[in-house]
Protein 1
Amino acid sequence: MCQKESEIKQNPSHFEGTDEELEMSKTIQADFMDYVKGMKFFDPHIHMTSRTTDDYTALVDAGVVAIIEPAFWLGQPRTGLSSFKDYYSSLVGWERFRSSQFGIKHYCTIGLNSREANNEALAEEVMEILPLFLYKEGVVGVGEIGFDDQTAAEEKYYRQQLELSKEAGLPVQVHTPHRDKKKGTELSMSIALEHGIDPGMVIIDHNNEETVESVLDKGFWAAFTIYPFTKMGNERMVELVKKYGSQRIMINSAADWGISDPLAVPKTAALMKIRGISDEAIKMVCYQNAIDAFAQSGQINVADFETPQEIDQSLKFNGNTVLRGGQIPRVDKNSIFIS
Amino acid sequence: MNVKDNLFEVIKTNASQKELNWIETKATSSLQSLQTAFVATTRFVSKTSVNTFEKLKGINFNTWNLDKLVRSYFLVCLDVADEVSYTKTLNTLFETAENNEAVALISSLALLEHPENWLLRATDAVRSNIGIVFDAIAFENPYPQEFFSELAWNQLVLKCIFNDKSIHKIQGLDDRANKELAISVSNLAHERWAAGRTIPPQAWRLVTNFLDETIFEDIKKVFDSEDYKNQLAAALVCKNSGFLPAKNELKKHIELEQKVKDLSWSFLEV
Ligand SMILES: [Zn+2]
């Protein structure tokens, strides 16, 4: 659903960066975490359903305190309403619980994704149950919705969901297409405006250099997905922040079932720090802007993740609290003994 | 007063005027609208804790928050005249429930019309790995005591012990103690001992009335434990049991016998 498509380009076998980058690669510290110690991060787009507990552990270690999991497609089309219902339920149920075990506050956006909007018979049924989920606690937006192939059916359900967002007073998280991105992005924005939606309530996702200017000019939020092997690597992200500043810009990992990096936000923060971007700007792009945008839902209470939460003992899982005194039990991957 | 009016009285003393207005409008609306209101409750009602001495059908609302109480109230407001619609509405709520909604539903089971019809939802909650959902059926909930079969009851209690949860918060714990459960507790202890671990001391209370030659061997072993609380547990079992060899065994442990004279299981409740 997210940034990459089939054209995954593997790591180049030799260094292709600038001289300056080559120099930096020799001098920077081995551990990127050294650069972002004490910083807090908010990843507003990550599909934890597809990730393991190792990833949750890594997120905690890197300072990610809260996340938003948008509803998306699962890699293959669902064939019935119950699959959608169970998926949405899992976002506000099991996955939310799993995340809480690591002390990470889990929010989600709920919507019918563009790909599956093309199965109109099923889409009609899904539209009927969406309101039931949109009003749930911790649902911070309608998302991720928008265009993929830019078909008539996609447009139809995009429009209907924009109306739902207005009714529920929720922000909209818009997925922009891989192919013909610029046109799809412009279309998404003009339709939102046509429906009388305040651009300040809309987060346009998966931007690049070609789309960002128009998005910011029109008053929308511009989100960037940092995804390995694709066009938007984090070095270019740093350049973008240098050029456009830190207002209404946010980054995310969009980590999912594809090759992706759940640590994209803290890693990019580290790179920004190395490249001389101010701590204040880093905080805006990697934390505050996402909160400001999605807190318009009325569903984000920053105290839930800014003050370290005592993990409720009732959240014990199979007799173990994952977090005990703030410590996550570690699995020693190198040990042959499992105890 | 019926349950509905009782609940509303408690809500009245805990909600703001603005909250009350919203609640009253919704309470008298259609099934569909009530269903949405149940979901949207936290958007209009705060999560302040409830102050009340009221206890209804064995439910102690003092440990509840206002949003949970209001959700429970909406459930008893559902029109029961059309049983098909009533059942369908509740099924939808169960199947789409967010975690806090699930807790409100499970905690309110005893207040529903024909509560026995919701047994599968209750036992599903026992199967849940989500802590708060499991706790909602296990603790301070009158439903299991009244409606669970022995098998379901034993699963509930064993899962609590297995997960080191506080079994004394299960309503009817001593009343529904049974031989099968006592054997299971003994088996669990053997498994734990094999792994170099133990069961929580208070779990032994469940064997008190079902001591036989076999389980009595366990109790002797618990007496020999190096942990004082385990020794006390063994002594309490013997003190309260009618099994003669147990009575005699306790006399061999003079200090413990003295100690448990004025002691009840509440001392070991954690
Ligand atoms: Zn996505």
Note: The first helix of chain B runs from residue 3 to 14.
Protein 2
Amino acid sequence: MEPVIEMRDLTKRYGDQVAVDRVTLHVPPGEIFGFLGPNGAGKTTTILMLLGLSEPTSGWARICGLDPTRAPVKVKRISGYLPEAVGFYEDMTAIDNLRYVARLNGIQDSQARMRIAERLALVGLADEGKKRVGAYSRGMRQRLGIAEVLLKDPRVVFLDEPTVGLDPDGTQRMLEMIQSLSRERGITVFFSSHLLDQVQRISARVGIMLKGRLVAVGSIQELGQQSLGVGQERYTLEEVYMRYFRQGPMAAA
Amino acid sequence: MRGLSAVYRKELEDHFSSARFTLLLTLILMVSLIMAYTTGNGLRKELEGFAKPALVFLLLFTSTGALFSLAQFVAFFGPLIGLVLGFDAINRERAQRTLAKLVAQPIYRDSIINGKFLAGLTTVTVLLAGIVLLISGLGLRELGVVPGWEEVGRLAVYLVISVLYVGFWLGLAILASVLFRGMATSALAVLALWIFLAFFVPLGATLVADSVVPVPTTGQAEIDTVLRHETIKRAVSYVSPIALYTDATSVILDPMRKTTRALVLVGPLERLSLSRFQNPLPLGQSALVVAPHLILLVALTFVCFAISYAAFMRQEVRTT
Ligand SMILES: Nc1ncnc2c1ncn2[C@@H]1O[C@H](COP(=O)(O)OP(=O)(O)OP(=O)(O)O)[C@@H](O)[C@H]1O
Ligand SMILES: [Mg+2]
């Protein structure tokens, strides 16, 4: 199957600093891909390049065969993006916030009304739609963000640390929501996170970034065997991640 | 296109429901009411016993009543309307973390700037048209004169020029909102520029003219020297759109003026006596005189836009 997300030698420099260093990666349709790495590893920068929001210094990326640098609008039509710590228009209601995004996506108001109601119900905010977002809690905002991302019926979504600041129950619900996107809607999910056990629970494959370099890609089992040696029956992402972290970015082949 | 219209709609709704719009509207209403009353009253008294001169209606906008004329008011405070409506256009989106998701929607980035500008311009048009209509209506009552087509035409042209003028300041404010991340910084920057253009440029123009063509203070100055002095002063003062606007509107609102030469302060009665020897310039001719001013004004606005686009396209959108 043709990969939904594809990048080759993707590189971003800010002056002397290399934020993303020759990253090559494929994500097949419908997969939940966990993107890991310590602060400043280059996760957000990679996502921005995949969406055409930041221009790669070298290398290229494709989203469903489209070049985000050359055809950013087409890429944005099929991709949803939840930025880290997403914001809303605080004085507007949740429904009005969503309606604005629907209009930006060219969805007719009549159709938008149904979609908005449906997406709000999906994230458990059906009864809070008429509230001002200013009165929303952290968890409600995060869920509203997911509803917003889904408005356009995306084929792929990029979620930058979607569980940050959520309580255990909220985290659990967020993870279930992400899983249902992939299972029920066939959406490809590319998400970054620092919470290893959660990533382990929902993602088929993970990538580990260190100082701009992608040091490991694969299922947790594969990575465990590669880095810790064959023998263990089950590897935890925790031990795998720490292993790569200690080896440092130069250990990458 | 659809991005533009969506942004435009939202921004327009925001403007009309915002506290700052209410504030501007109240301020403008108050000033217009006071001005219409004082100038209307003053004019009526001065004209008592005289035959009503041609185009008397326009005097409502140009004669300085108790404080200043409407034309002067807009020249001076119009910029503030533009600045207030635009100084936080882009950086507010950044501060409330909506910018990243906004540019992640399938629209071109420039339609964000354009939509915001057009919404601001619409708001400005509503405000300014409101002032002109209000003053006309009240003046009609005070003076008891119905404006002729010529006057209505001139007022319409005046309105267009004023909208373009405030539009320039709006463009400038939006540019500041792109360049400065802090909203307070942006507000201060545009205010500083406004003060510079409103107060320091005229001062500088005089200084430059004085040093290039000194006019002797004692004795009779050569008429030629005085003229050259004035020409240089005017040329320098055109650095400021305020001077451009003041000159352009004075020609449009005062048909007796045939050039955009510096304002000679004359009272309505002197104006009357002048009109016996002169015929008013037709509107078309007046418009021709001010066309270069308008072109310059629009060009300046486009410069603001060009810089805004260039800066905004390159900017990182990340929120942290
Ligand atoms: N506009 C910029 N100018 C210069 N350097 C930048 C810029 N944006 C990011 N960087 C640098 O690029 C590197 C990667 O940043 P990035 O935000 O992609 O990391 P991240 O993996 O998302 O980290 P976090 O987990 O903290 O979100 C960092 O070292 C950062 O300092
Ligand atoms: Mg990040």
Note: Chain B touches chain A through 24 residues (CB under 8 Å).
